[in-house]
């Protein structure tokens, strides 16, 4: 389930570029994990889909923020990404608690999720400070 995929840079700052790349890579891992989980237990499809939606929404909103119409719009898109990241964090903890993920699988995914939360929080603070 590891993936070190990156995307070409389209952002103006290094921090935004990292955020775009890491949120895209996280989305790839979320899709792969969704497929893996569906192979384990299709009866939980509805919660797997909620995880899929939240995890891919992080990167989609980060990407959308790059074309924000204002600083406020930019911050709002990043806030949505942060909320979706935190929801993804919840689902990962649940999947581990109900033994759908091994400790190593969980640690790998949760580390990426927490790193995204830190990057998003930092980017939001910086954008607010600069507005």
Keywords:
131 residues, mainly alpha, de novo design (two linked rop proteins), disordered N terminus
Task: Walk me through what this model shows.
- It contains 4 helices and no strands.
- By secondary structure, it is mainly alpha-helical.
- Residues 2-11 have low confidence and may be disordered.
- The protein has helices at residues 14-40, 45-65, 71-97, 103-129.
- The protein has one domain (14-129): 23S rRNA-intervening sequence (de novo design (two linked rop proteins)), CATH 1.20.1440.
- Helix 1 (14-40) packs antiparallel against helix 2 (45-65) and helix 1 (14-40) packs antiparallel against helix 4.
- The radius of gyration is 15 Å and the shape is elongated.
**How would you sum up the major sheet?**
none
CATH superfamily grouping: 23S rRNA-intervening sequence
Q: Figure out the total of helices.
A: 4
CA radius of gyration is 15 Å
Helical content (DSSP H or I, runs of 4+): over 70%
How far apart lie the N and C ends?
39 Å
Q: Which spans of ≥5 residues are poorly predicted at pLDDT below 50?
A: 2-11
If you average the pLDDT, what whole number results? 91
Instruction: Indicate the CATH class.
Output: Mainly Alpha
Number of strands: 0
Q: What proportion strand? A: under 5%
Number of domains as seen in the coordinates: 1
* Inertia-based shape: elongated
CATH topology: de novo design (two linked rop proteins)
Instruction: Specify the CATH architecture.
Output: Up-down Bundle
Order of helices and strands: HHHH
Secondary-structure-derived class:
mainly alpha
């Amino acid at each position: 389930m590891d993936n070190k995929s990156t995307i070409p840079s389209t952002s103006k700052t290094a921090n935004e570029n990292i955020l775009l790349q890491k949120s895209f890579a996280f989305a790839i891992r979320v899709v792969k994990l969704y497929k893996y989980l569906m192979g384990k237990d299709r009866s939980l499809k509805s919660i797997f889909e909620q995880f899929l939606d939240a995890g891919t929404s992080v990167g989609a909103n980060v990407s959308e923020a790059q074309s924000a119409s204002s600083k406020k719009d930019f911050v709002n898109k990043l806030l949505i990404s942060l909320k979706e990241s935190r929801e993804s964090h919840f689902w990962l903890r649940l999947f581990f608690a109900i033994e759908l993920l091994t400790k190593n699988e969980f640690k790998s995914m949760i580390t990426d999720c927490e790193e995204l939360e830190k990057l998003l929080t930092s980017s939001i603070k910086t954008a607010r400070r600069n507005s």
